[in-house]
Design brief:
mainly alpha; Penicillin binding protein transpeptidase fold; 2 domains; 57% helix
């Protein structure tokens, strides 16, 4: 066999690179779609954020704390889905993963008032995708993955399933994840027995649950609680599973 020319060598290298890239892309799509399909029925026991928080605790020399217990949606107070929709995503039942009205409003407000804290427009679906499949961050790469996973869970999961996973996986305090854990550690009861007022407190803390403690609410959290309680009257009720 004769010696390959430079041109032939380049062609072979490019072909191998192309095959590797195609394999990586195919593996990514197959594995992510399969994961979303499986989690349509299987409980989410652990999320990337839980691991990151444990790593941070270990790095700071703190006691490792992870309080989380999966409970089905029917074992969670029906006031909690309404409270988080009122506080985080009032049009959750109407959109398909992205609230374009909220995105437009947030963009206009951030442009017109750059001195104020930036307003976000992430829906419950986007937050669920981020919590279950991704890592915290604000890079465009992570945001791109968030859009992909949001579209995927909206396609494969029902709204009830998205809410169930959201209420079981979201961070609700320091080392506390999900409705069952926050009900037990902050209110000493089951998630099913949470009152409307307690649900509004939990929802009010979600922008920063490690700063705003639903077990010991300050003036800001009380103000958010009152607003959420008022908004809950106008939020649609989540259909039965």
């Amino acid at each position: 066999m004769g010696k390959l020319t430079v041109s032939q060598t380049k062609t072979l290298v490019l072909q191998k690179i192309r095959k590797v890239l195609l394999w990586i892309v195919a593996t990514f799509f197959v594995s992510t779609i399969l994961s979303v399909v499986v989690l349509r029925w299987v409980p989410v026991w652990f999320t990337p954020l839980m691991f990151i928080r444990l790593f941070q605790q270990a790095g700071q020399g703190h006691e490792l704390v992870l309080r989380h217990r999966w409970v089905p949606l029917e074992d969670i107070s029906p006031s909690l889905p309404k409270a988080v929709m009122a506080g985080e995503d009032a049009r959750f039942l109407d959109h398909h993963g992205f609230d374009y009205r909220a995105i437009e409003y947030a963009a206009m407000r951030n442009i017109s008032h750059p001195e104020k804290r930036k307003l976000g427009a992430s829906t419950i679906s986007q937050q669920t995708a981020k919590n279950v499949f991704l890592w915290p961050g604000r890079s465009w790469i992570r945001k791109g993955f968030e859009v992909y996973f949001t579209a995927l869970i909206e396609l494969v999961w029902s709204k009830e399933r998205i809410m169930e996973v959201y209420l079981n996986s979201i961070e609700m305090g320091d080392g506390i994840y999900g409705a069952s854990a926050v009900a037990e550690w902050h209110f000493h009861k089951s998630a099913a027995d949470l009152t409307k007022s307690e649900c509004a407190l939990i929802a009010g803390s979600l922008p920063n649950p490690r700063k705003y403690n639903s077990a010991d609410p300050g003036p800001y959290l009380r103000k958010r609680q009152g607003r959420i309680l008022r908004e809950m009257r106008f939020v649609k009720t989540l259909p039965d599973k």
